[in-house]
Design goal:
373 residues; alpha/beta; Rossmann fold; Glutathione S-transferase Yfyf (Class Pi), Chain A, domain 2; six-stranded mixed sheet
């Protein structure tokens, strides 16, 4: 899996940026606000048709403009793949593969697996259950087209059901036959999706533990525990039993949108008892487990994006991570740093080809490379 080149047109602070990448390590350098992270986000958008930073496509368009376009030339399964994504204000996004329009954007997801390690990943530990669900749903969606389609269908019916409950409250009239239809489908999909989530977590848990031990040299046991009511024998009855509460609150109180994934260390909640170092090690172990899970499923290494990783880790963890890179555990790597001297010092010992790109105010002002030893 290789990204050979990238073009960003009116994407955030990039008016028209073109980059040709090394198949090994690519290091984007520049001061904060220079556009380094936006390059990574452009790669993320081409792979998953959405930003890693902002939910709204309108926020990706350069200020004062009315559209953006991204184009990337990839090598996937030894074959060339050109991907182009365009968004015009007020219109539906357009995705093309080798010039062919993709009617359903979701059909593109999964063609180019990608793993991003970013500064705000701590939200996975400290944030709400929604963030953890989205992470694991995103992981599954890149690998399992049926899961993605069922998840989209679930949220469609959930939205419709909640709108119906609100309508009941506003009008005082209740169409319980229509509500029964929504209930039946949401119960069915909850069980299907919960089983797939449970299977994923049972498979990825040992990978997380292995990477955690490697990164931290610690002896703690870390684990992910899936908390769901959808796999309980009485789930269907409980879903229907909550109908009166649903009618009163005008929202759905049962279903997989209420699930959580509990992250634990030595059987205690990581967010409460884990030190900063333990939390950082867990997060990187989680993302590396995702990487190797993708590699096993797809038969080739996904793209790995590391945003400001040197600022967020201590030297010991950086050394461990770069040791993995040097050993060939990863394929093409993209990373950002605001301190060029530090990056060059860390990367010169890798023995791999490294491409350096100096950015300033959304422009690449210099490039050079360090050949492998």
């Amino acid at each position: 899996m290789i990204l050979e080149s990238l073009q960003l047109i009116q994407f955030k602070n990039h008016s028209n940026t073109q980059l040709a990448f090394s198949p090994g390590v690519n290091c984007l350098l520049g001061k904060n606000g220079s556009g380094k992270t936006n390059v990574l986000d452009g790669i993320h958008y081409l792979c998953l048709t959405k930003s890693a930073l902002h939910g709204s496509d309108a926020l990706q368009v350069q200020h004062g403009k009315d559209f953006f376009t991204l184009k990337g030339n990839f090598i996937v399964q030894a074959s060339p793949l050109e991907v182009r994504c365009s968004v015009e204000m007020g219109k539906k996004k357009q995705v093309f593969q080798n010039g062919k329009w993709i009617e359903k954007v979701s059909d593109h997801v999964g063609h180019i697996p990608i793993v991003l390690i970013a500064p705000d990943d701590t939200d996975l530990i400290k944030g709400s259950s929604e963030g953890r669900r989205k992470f694991f749903d995103g992981l599954l969606s890149q690998l399992d087209r049926n899961y993605l389609e069922q998840l989209i269908r679930y949220h469609h019916f959930l939205k419709q059901r909640n709108a119906l409950l609100k309508q009941f409250g506003e009008t005082g009239r209740r169409d319980l036959t229509l509500l029964d239809t929504y209930d039946e489908e949401l119960i069915r999909l909850s069980v299907l999706l919960a089983n797939r989530r449970a299977a994923l977590l049972s498979e990825i848990g040992p990978l997380i533990q292995a990477h955690y031990l490697s990164l931290s040299s610690g002896k703690e046991k870390v684990e992910v525990i899936y908390q769901t009511e959808a796999l309980q024998p009485d789930f269907s009855a409980n879903f229907l039993r909550l109908r009166q509460k649903d009618l009163a609150t005008k929202t759905s109180n049962a279903g997989i949108h209420k699930d959580d994934i509990d992250l634990r260390i030595d059987s205690y909640p990581l967010r409460k008892v884990g030190s900063q170092g333990q939390q950082k090690s867990f997060l990187i172990a989680l993302k590396l487990a995702q990487f190797h899970y993708f590699e096993k499923a797809k038969g080739e290494k996904p793209l790995l994006l590391l945003d400001d990783i040197f600022d967020k880790l201590d030297d010991e963890r950086i050394a461990k991570l770069l040791e993995m890179v040097a050993q060939g555990n990863f394929g093409q790597l993209f990373l950002t740093d605001a301190r060029p001297e530090r990056s060059r010092e860390f990367l010169k010992s890798l023995g791999k080809e490294v491409g350096y790109y100096i950015l300033h105010e959304g422009q690449v002002i210099a490039t050079d490379s360090l050949p492998p030893k």
